[in-house]
Design goal:
Length: about 375
């Protein structure tokens, strides 16, 4: 494949010891012909191929600095990127150039539970039923202490009636709804086992609860373009095709298991690293179709998807045996594969429970 000129910069000259530069002109193969995202987004491996090896003649830190200067020079050469835009983009957006290559040097780090951090306000309402009437909650202190070992925080309890207890709990991202019910029933049984050999019935109900209600959150996700208005109306109109809303998915309906009812709805937000923007419609459509395909494979029902130039919003009903962490990692790894295995998105994101009731209504 013939090499193509990317651009020039006064900060980039001919490297010592030879290389792939000629004067102040930088020569690289076009990213569009090598599986790269449009706009010449380059990974560390591609930069390493462009910068010559010195075999110990120069310190390693100097080599890293050289690669960073080359990346800045490539990103600054915006005048040549217009040559790479497809005919469809030229017709749609005219001759206006949008910075498609402002992303930082991006590696291929795998998303794991150890290197990801989430902002996760996760609250749940759990309803349990007593076999016999219960009027005292003197077991609350022991139950609260025992649940802390399972990363479950008991916030509130009340008797709906003499045989019905309602609990408000908050959890970490690693706790699935099925685990919450299992540990809550098990710890409660252990606390009252001396005076009640069979205290609880088998059935239960669990609801996800958020700071905002389901209708408000659903409206917010479906109206993302109203919150993030693009300067060019042509781009704004093109992004409308990337918004997804499935009216057949009713998040207010429960999911039934053999013993109980679940309302398990999550609002997920994943953001590009350094909030760089991409307006390559082909790539954004690839992200949207990939999210829909991945959700079907993972048995996740998507009510709404908002794909923006620098982040995505998801509102979904999730399987009750999977934790929010497992669901988030599935999406992050899937999003990485849609970008040819690159860690385009931040290592983490926002995960929030959503339901018919809010935390303010319960308090």
């Amino acid at each position: 494949m013939a090499a193509r000129p990317i651009g020039s910069s006064p900060h980039v000259g001919k490297p010592r010891g030879g290389g792939v530069a000629e004067g102040s002109r930088v020569w690289l193969r076009s990213g569009l012909h090598a599986g790269e995202p449009r706009g010449g987004l380059l990974s560390n491996d591609r930069i390493a191929k462009a910068v010559p090896r010195y075999d110990g003649a120069r310190p390693h830190r100097t080599l890293i600095a050289t690669r960073m200067r080359w990346q800045r020079a490539i990103n600054a050469s915006t005048s040549h990127i217009n040559r790479w835009l497809t005919v469809h983009q030229r017709i749609k957006f005219g001759s206006v150039f949008y910075p498609l290559c402002e992303a930082p040097i991006i590696g291929t780090e795998i998303y794991t539970a150890d290197n990801c951090t989430f902002s996760a306000p996760l609250c749940w309402s759990v309803t349990l039923f007593w076999n016999e009437a219960e009027s005292s909650d003197d077991w609350m202190v022991d139950l609260t202490s025992a649940l802390e070992k399972d990363n479950i925080r008991l916030l509130q309890h009340r008797f709906a009636n003499s045989k019905t207890s309602q609990f408000l709990v908050s959890t970490q991202v690693s706790s699935s709804p099925s685990l919450i019910v299992q540990r809550l029933k098990g710890r409660l049984y252990h606390a009252v086992r001396n005076r009640k050999p069979k205290p609880l019935r088998g059935n239960f109900a669990l609801r996800s609860i958020g700071k905002a209600g389901r209708e408000e959150t659903e409206k917010y996700v479906t109206d993302q373009l109203g919150h993030h208005v693009m300067a060019d109306q042509r781009v704004q109109a093109a992004l409308e095709e990337l918004q997804y809303h499935d009216t057949t998915v009713t998040l207010s309906d429960p999911v039934r298991s053999s013993h109980g009812l679940y309302w398990y709805n999550l609002h997920c937000v994943f953001v590009h690293r350094e909030r760089w923007r991409c307006v390559d419609l082909a790539q954004l459509h690839r992200v949207q179709h990939g999210i829909l395909s991945l959700s079907r494979h993972e048995c996740i029902q998507l009510a709404a998807v908002g794909v923006l130039t620098d982040h995505v919003h998801l509102l979904a009903r999730c399987p009750y045996d999977r934790s929010p962490l497992e669901i988030a990692l599935s999406y992050l790894l899937g999003l990485s594969s849609f970008w040819d295995g690159r860690a385009i998105y931040q290592h983490g994101g926002y995960l929030g429970t959503v339901g018919e009731y809010t935390t303010n209504a319960i308090k």
